[in-house]
Amino acid sequence: MPGIVLIGTQWGDEGKGKITDLLANQMDMVVRYQGGDNAGHTVINGDQEFRFHLIPSGILYPHITCVIGNGVVVNPKVLIEELDGLESRGVCVDKLLISCNAHLVMPYHLVLDGACELKLGKAKIGTTHKGIGPAYADKISRTGLRVQDMLDIKIFRKKLEAALNEKNEILTKIYNFEPFEADKIVADYSSYAKRLEKHITDTSLIVNQTLDKGKNVFFEGAQGTLLDIDHGTYPFVTSSSPVAGGACVGAGVGPKRIDRVIGVVKAYVTRVGSGPFPTELDDKVGERIREKGGEYGTTTGRPRRCGWFDALILRYASRINSLTEIVVTKLDVLSQFEKIKICVGYEYKGKIYDNFPPHQTIVHKCKPVYEEVDGWKESLEDITDYGDLPKAAQKYLARIEELGGVPIKMISVGPKRKQIIFKN
Ligand code: GDP
Ligand code: IMO
Ligand code: MG
Questions:
Q1: pTM for this entry
Q2: Is 202 considered catalytic here?
Q3: Which end of the chain is more exposed for a tag (fewer CB within 10 A), N or C?
Q4: What tens digit of pLDDT does each residue of 174-204 get?
């Protein structure tokens, strides 16, 4: 019965990979339902660090079936590199399944992603340049190629040639780029198909059968609520639905299958790429958070923008995702300040907003309203009992819980598996 969704409540990089890996132990299946290799989920197992982009963060457990659902966009070249990398480190990947309905990221998507960003100039989104936006655009335009097309190379070629008719016009006439040759792409994707064929299947059927058997299925979100195409800070978003509702669409299960929705909440906020960020700290405090938190992109290496915790964002994420509980991550990173700020409102033109405003202008131009609480300077890294946390840290968590209106079930105090505190 239990279907559990885990999502990011902010702009991504909340620590979803660590929490998925931690909870995966009790699961039978871990499913990615959206996004592509724009995601970067870090898992530390013993003294080994793994960075997952397409492969679900449950892969390190041999008993778990990992699924790349229909809602994911798959760059098969990257997926094969990721599989090879894991195998070379002794990880068995036999139990990975890939949806035959997932869409493919094609070489021209990567070029178009870069070209669009270049054309936007200062207004660029700051994408990961993985071709994600163009791949989803083709899916919605009904001109995309799917994983199953690779298994019938005649069909693949036909669809590819139709796509290239349009893409090559755009590439050569608008962007002044070289056109793509169908033959080369057909040859490359035929070889990817040979490698991936044994993993490709009707994953919706298997996910539903697993739930029917009363087994535990974990849906691992990528990105975060504010990067959602519908509910995020559009246009500075990704092109998929990272919110909890996306799990149903992107895995092929009905909403009644979902029993719990876990929100991952970083103890402060980060963002990589462009777009509004009310509590951003473009100063020494922001730098201290970045350095202690190692806030550099897992996928692109870009420095992440850092800012204070924002309660409006948590309340919004709770509403959009029907959160049943939250996990607060990276609390240890705040163990360096005399005082810590919590954003409890946005001020714009004399009005105070206590809900995330629907009009983007307000998010761009508002001034955060802060509440200041005492910090703690003790290290938290070795604490495993809630009661052992400094009183000021407990108060900070209680305030997050109160402002967000969602119970905290876990607190992460370091990147390793064992650095976790369970809270009743
Ligand atoms: P994801 O995209 O949400 O999976 O997050 P990322 O893996 O991109 O970024 C989170 C980073 O923080 C990774 O380097 C993790 O190893 C690290 N991390 C996760 N939880 C904690 C924590 O509680 N404390 C610290 N200091 N680091 C953490
Ligand atoms: P995980 O799963 C943080 C951001 C990019 C950019 C915007 C659009 O690791 O949390 P895209 O390449 O998706 O078209 O870029 O979304 N972005 C992420 N930011 N974490 C991620 O994934 C992200 N995936 C995309 O930086 O602002
Ligand atoms: Mg990440």
A1: 0.98
A2: no
A3: C
A4: 999 999 999 999 999 999 999 999 999 999 9
